[in-house]
Amino acid sequence: MDKKTAPPLALRAKWVFPVCGPPLENGLVTIGGDRILAVGNKTDAGNVVDLGDVAITPGFVNAHTHLEFSGLNAPLGHAGIPFVDWIRQVMAFRQTQTGDWKQQALAKGIQECIAGGVTTVADIASSPWLPEANSKKIDGVDFLEILGGSPQRYEPLWQGACKLLQVDHNARLGLSPHAPYSTHIELLERAARWAKKKAVPLAMHLAETVEEAELLASHSGPLLEFLLDLDVWRPDAAPRGIRFLDYLECLARAPWSLVVHGNILGHQEIQFLAQRRQQMALVHCPRTHIFFQRRPFPLREWLEAGVQIAIGTDSRASNPDLRMLGELQTLARLHPDIAPRRLLPLVTQDSAAALRREQHIGSLTPGRRADLAVLVLPNHASDDPHELLWESPGVLETWRHGLRCPAMEN
Ligand SMILES: [Zn+2]
């Protein structure tokens, strides 16, 4: 039967977490077609499926990943690996890949996302870009990575990205100037002008490491040595003394942008982002942060400052898997100073807002898309039902556009 004409269906769960309101015990989510019709303790639907001792949450939003690394079984390097050593391993990994490795990794990554309750993803893809590989199986944005310290390197990438953007009729694509150490400032400025004119979003890794700060401030340090080694360093690519704020000002020209990591941004930059929370978000990747053994991320301070925060896994090159539940549980463990009810929105509603999709997804609100994650719950009660999520062993099933996900394969 066509899903648009199928009669409404209600899913009952021990706990329903609408995110836009308090958790509901023995709650019901009523779905009609690809939409949520109602959320509460009653339903008009004739067809009620009791899912048992589970939780229903909105489908998770992974605000930063690189799905093309999803073929990896374990992160590259070791915990606490110096950043430059890790980049060398990433480059070496790419060079050993052959055939349709990227296509296969994308398929595997999407499958893992869906199995883990993720229904929307912000993916960074390197050239040759394969955006069509993602588009029908998972929602979100494919950011086309552009980089290069010299015009010889970045012009072909730029031309290729522009061609794809011109035929992107579903507003599925964005641009990702990679990072200050890899991307000429002129390329970023060009991307920002294009983004403003054509209403294209931007995503950029920024202020991830102290090595990056050292390179920008004084043209020295391990990143400089690394770039010299590769013979790709151009001093004009990132003029000495250029500030993270200069990069943020560029990104602010886009209709919306994701600032990825921002681990070492200071007060001034935090204020800058807070004042632009409608169009700029900071993406924090908790388990990747732990992998690199970075100093604790001051999440509460960022939230209190009013910055729009989104959460991502980053890639399997720095994370053992792509489970957003793993990120949520890590947040709960590392941030006991943040109210439990404030954490689930970070991986759903807030990450949806960062992608400017909060009117469509991210909460169980009537009229929004029926994208759901169904989580196994531990076999006991808790004063705060959110804490049950911290102990959930995993995602039981995922619903996307009103359909249980295996059905989406047809
Ligand atoms: Zn990344």
Describe the 3D structure.
The protein has helices spanning 83-96, 101-115, 151-166, 185-198, 210-218, 222-230, 244-251, 267-275, 286-291, 299-305, 324-334, 349-354, 386-390; strands at 9-16, 24-32, 35-40, 47-50, 54-58, 60-65, 118-125, 139-146, 173-177, 202-206, 257-261, 280-284, 308-311, 372-376, 395-400, 403-404. It is of the alpha/beta class. The chain folds into two domains: 9-58 and 363-409, Urease, subunit C, domain 1 (Roll), CATH 2.30.40; 60-354, TIM Barrel. Strands 1, 2, 3, 4, 5, 14, 15 and 16 form an eight-stranded mixed beta sheet that branches. A four-stranded parallel beta sheet has the order 6-7-8-9. It binds zinc ion. Zinc ion binds next to loops.
Q: What's a concise summary of this model?
A:
The protein is of the alpha/beta class. It has helices at residues 83-96, 101-115, 151-166, 185-198, 210-218, 222-230, 244-251, 267-275, 286-291, 299-305, 324-334, 349-354, 386-390; strands at residues 9-16, 24-32, 35-40, 47-50, 54-58, 60-65, 118-125, 139-146, 173-177, 202-206, 257-261, 280-284, 308-311, 372-376, 395-400, 403-404. Strand 1 (9-16) and strand 2 (24-32) form a beta hairpin.
CATH architecture of the largest domain, by name, is Alpha-Beta Barrel
Please write the CATH class name of the largest domain.
Alpha Beta
Number of structural units classed as domains: 2
Largest sheet: 8 strands, mixed
Rg, rounded, reads 21 Å
Instruction: Give unreliable regions as ranges.
Output: none
| CATH superfamily grouping of the largest domain | Metal-dependent hydrolases
Assign a percent range to the helix content.
Answer: 25-40%
Mean pLDDT: 95
List cofactors, ions and other ligands.
zinc ion
CATH domain topology of the largest domain: TIM Barrel
Structure annotation, total helices: 13
Number of strands: 16
Task: Report strand %.
Answer: 15-25%
SSE ordering: EEEEEEHHEEHEHEHHHEHEHHEHHEHEE
> Based on the structure, what is the oligomeric state of the protein chains?
single chain
Q: What is the overall silhouette?
A: globular
Overall structural class, as computed from helix and strand content, comes to alpha/beta
> What separation lies between the terminal Cα atoms?
13 Å
